[in-house]
């Protein structure tokens, strides 16, 4: 007799184009049990990210046990592992999870408490679920990788490439909070409007050369660049406009399958530019000693939200959480034209 309790989930057994109904399927799986510092969270809302699409599109998997995607969730702590110190059953939480574990597209989900934050009191589950992955990426990119101080940035500027997406939508707000002049890139009227509404000081089009557009608004060089779009494609433009001894952070690795040119990193050499990568799963993948920083930054973010300093980037809600709605969300993400975040709520 099977004594395991079952839960709903959405997953994939093998790579298929998103138009195929088998690409993401509804499942019933055993409900997991928390050990060590894990929380068992009853998931109330999830959001989708390019990471979901990227993992789903890896052509080299075909698995007996389904691959569960999803790296953004908000919910209620159901149970805590024996070594937990930060949360108790009943706490409302939000988090992005770890890419090396099953994702959050399931009714119950295990996550290490050190990468979980207390949910903002002023938001519902869906609005909170829109935030973790993009906020952690933006926060780490700006403050850990680029080394920007949260204060004292008078006369300093940042160029955010791909500013209308999930990470850009938070990065604009955090950069403004830090006192930077923010130049965002956007190419369509609706994305330009969104970027402006979040507080960008200037907007340029990333499909055209950067330097003349910056000169038009009286800017010669920028102190920082946060690249949230095709790194290889934008490298020459970035090299032209970065200040000597400036810093560039990118979250987009070079795709050798689609990039046919040579990636000339030595273009940055004459200006002694610092180039850094940001990958928000590094801390959870490698269990770094400072893993708890993600717990701390999510809690700070929640305070910023409750104080009205940052707003959620939720732009679309879908209900319920099931394979059909997740396929729809993935399809929208694959266009590369989504603004803000798509969230699914309630199983």
UniProtKB/TrEMBL annotation:
<keyword id="KW-0963">Cytoplasm</keyword>
<keyword id="KW-0521">NADP</keyword>
<feature type="domain" description="Enoyl reductase (ER)">
    <location>
        <begin position="22"/>
        <end position="344"/>
    </location>
</feature>
<comment type="subunit">
    <text>Homotetramer.</text>
</comment>
<keyword id="KW-0694">RNA-binding</keyword>
<dbReference type="InterPro" id="IPR002364">
    <property type="entry name" value="Quin_OxRdtase/zeta-crystal_CS"/>
</dbReference>
<keyword id="KW-0479">Metal-binding</keyword>
<dbReference type="InterPro" id="IPR020843">
    <property type="entry name" value="ER"/>
</dbReference>
<dbReference type="InterPro" id="IPR014182">
    <property type="entry name" value="ADH_Zn_typ-1"/>
</dbReference>
<dbReference type="Pfam" id="PF08240">
    <property type="entry name" value="ADH_N"/>
</dbReference>
<dbReference type="Pfam" id="PF13602">
    <property type="entry name" value="ADH_zinc_N_2"/>
</dbReference>
<comment type="similarity">
    <text>Belongs to the zinc-containing alcohol dehydrogenase family. Quinone oxidoreductase subfamily.</text>
</comment>
<keyword id="KW-0560">Oxidoreductase</keyword>
<keyword id="KW-0862">Zinc</keyword>
<dbReference type="InterPro" id="IPR051603">
    <property type="entry name" value="Zinc-ADH_QOR/CCCR"/>
</dbReference>
<dbReference type="InterPro" id="IPR013154">
    <property type="entry name" value="ADH-like_N"/>
</dbReference>
<protein>
    <recommendedName>
        <fullName>Zinc-type alcohol dehydrogenase-like protein</fullName>
    </recommendedName>
</protein>
<dbReference type="InterPro" id="IPR011032">
    <property type="entry name" value="GroES-like_sf"/>
</dbReference>
<dbReference type="InterPro" id="IPR036291">
    <property type="entry name" value="NAD(P)-bd_dom_sf"/>
</dbReference>
């Amino acid at each position: 007799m099977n004594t395991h309790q079952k839960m709903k989930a959405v997953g994939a057994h093998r790579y298929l184009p998103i138009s195929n109904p088998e690409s993401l399927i509804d499942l019933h799986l055993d409900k997991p049990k928390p050990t060590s510092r894990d929380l068992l969270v009853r998931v109330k809302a999830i959001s989708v990210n390019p990471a979901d699409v990227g993992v789903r599109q890896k052509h080299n998997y075909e698995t007996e046990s389904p691959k569960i995607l999803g790296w953004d969730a908000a919910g209620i702590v159901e149970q805590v592992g024996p070594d937990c110190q930060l949360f108790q059953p009943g706490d409302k939480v939000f988090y992005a999870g770890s890419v090396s574990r099953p994702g959050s597209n399931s009714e119950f989900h295990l996550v290490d408490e050190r990468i979980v934050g207390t949910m903002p009191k002023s938001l519902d589950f869906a609005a909170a679920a829109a935030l973790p992955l993009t906020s952690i990426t933006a926060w780490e990119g700006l403050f850990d990788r680029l080394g920007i101080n949260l204060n004292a940035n008078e006369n300093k500027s940042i160029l955010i490439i791909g500013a209308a997406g999930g990470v850009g939508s938070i990065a604009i707000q955090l950069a403004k909070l830090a006192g930077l002049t923010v130049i965002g890139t956007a190419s369509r009227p609706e994305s330009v409007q969104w970027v402006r509404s979040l507080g960008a000081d200037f907007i340029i089009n990333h499909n055209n050369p950067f330097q003349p557009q910056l000169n038009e608004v009286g800017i010669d060089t920028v102190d920082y660049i946060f690249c949230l779009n095709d790194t290889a494609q934008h490298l020459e433009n970035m090299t032209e406009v970065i200040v000597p001894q400036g810093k560039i952070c990118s979250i987009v690795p070079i795709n050798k399958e689609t990039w046919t040119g040579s990636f000339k990193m030595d273009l940055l050499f004459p200006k002694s530019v610092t180039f850094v990568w940001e990958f928000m799963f590094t801390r959870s993948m490698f269990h770094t000693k400072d893993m708890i920083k993600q717990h701390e930054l999510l809690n700070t973010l929640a305070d910023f939200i409750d104080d009205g300093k940052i707003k959620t980037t939720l732009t679309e809600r879908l209900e319920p959480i099931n394979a059909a709605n997740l396929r729809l969300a993935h399809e929208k993400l694959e266009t590369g034209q989504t603004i803000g975040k798509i969230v699914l709520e309630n199983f």
